[in-house]
Amino acid sequence: MKPAFHYGAALLSGSALTLAYAPFNFWWLTLPCFALFSYLLLGTSPKQAAKTGMAFGLGWFGAGISWVHVSIAEFGGLPLIGSIGLMLLLCAYLALYPTFFAYALQRSFSRSIWPLSAAALWFVVEWFRSWMLTGFPWLSIGYSQTNGPLAGWLPVIGETGLSALLVLCASALALGVKQRNYYFALSPALITLITGAVFDRIDWVTPTNKTASVALVQGNIKQELRWVPEQDRPTMEKYLRMTEAHWRNDIIVWPEAAIPKLEPLARNYIRELDELAIAANTSLITGIVNYNFETSEAFNNVIVVGKQRQNDTQGHYRYLHVNRYAKHHLLPIGEFIPFEDWLRGIAPLFDLPMSSFSRGDYQQANLMANGYRLAPALCFEIAFPRQIGANLHKNSDMIITVSNDAWFGHSHGPAQHMQIAQVRAKEFGMPVIRATNNGITGIIDASGNIQSLLPQFEAAVLTDSVSLVTGNTPYRWLGDLPMWIFTFLALVSRFFFSRTSTHQ
Known about the structure:
Layout: H1 3-16, H2 30-41, H3 46-64, H4 68-75, H5 80-108, H6 114-129, H7 154-179, H8 182-199, E1 206-218, H9 232-243, E2 251-253, H10 267-279, E3 283-292, E4 297-306, E5 324-326, H11 340-343, E6 367-369, E7 372-378, H12 385-390, E8 398-403, H13 413-428, E9 432-436, E10 442-444, E11 450-453, E12 460-470, H14 474-478, H15 481-503
Parallel strand pairs: 1-2, 2-3, 7-8, 8-9
Antiparallel strand pairs: 1-12, 3-4, 4-5, 6-7, 9-10, 10-11
């Protein structure tokens, strides 16, 4: 195959992966797309494999996270060529991971254990992507399977494990076709599909008789107005007005930074919320930015006002009270500026309001709201299963995630974000409530199914009952331990087969 067609096919296979994720949901595309990529790697030198991996990665991320361009172009204050350049730079960085995967696979692993090696290596490379430079695990391929039979694997080995399993099946398919051994090509995929369908019929957790009525308020505030000082009061009045008819619910949730004033400057308003919530016998959770004027530290926070416990008769809010959560995983550029001293002032993008936060602890106490315990994830953090797992306790009732996806307009970014939340629910067997500024706001049950949903770009309130559950999924209990054992055994096998081939 000519180089232009070879690398073009790799680019196309990566680009087509976008259709496997929400909102398109052609989940079945993942296997043939990755199988084509794997097939293209066969017979290449390590250097050619690296180029193939780069082409695949540029297609994968270039199409898959093209929504990042919306925030850079519309709110970053850069000319078109600058925003495209930054977008390409981000995609090129992310493409380094499949590049390294392809190079290492061809450089160090025997064809005899190629599918196992590919799965183990992919797991390690994606693990690095999840924490390097604070981590950007978006578009991990396991997320594409929420609507397919392989979703049954999510509560067993998690999304990270399912990604590795997909790579194993795709590599076996490619190798089997190359060797014309179609039994070898199809067997892993068929076994994985059937087993996933069986797993999906198992009830890993058990519903209790306990429910919580929740109201999720979607204010639909335009992004360009969110940090305009003159809009502070109208925004806060809008959220109060939208909440008036819903105080009867057990829990009311406002989205990320719904209160646009800094917490020290909004204390009177928050005390008013505290009094209104306690008078209505309920609890209100909202996002807000806290700024310490003495230390110049800013935190992206979620706080609870009103009832903390069910038998409370008075509100518990005071400034810096402990019933709050500070975001740990900060988004580069959006919430912290790498090499800040150099980049500040180069372009408006690097000087956006609220773009330099301090980091909260990795593990924090659950939020307590009207007697319910909620494990929080602020916006982007819902993409980090290890952090979610570390903050789930035996008595946690549900996961709460608040976000503002107005940055990404009418792109496919918000749908991908919602899909990630669905995967967290299914992995951990835990309902997820998600409140956003302009969508997608919704409630996900413990099986990962969307229970109720608000349309995007509308100011509306979603009210529903959340059914609580008891029990653990295997993934919540063991985390990534089975996958690390598998990876260790695959590496041991690599050295065993290497020595065997040397002696022959």
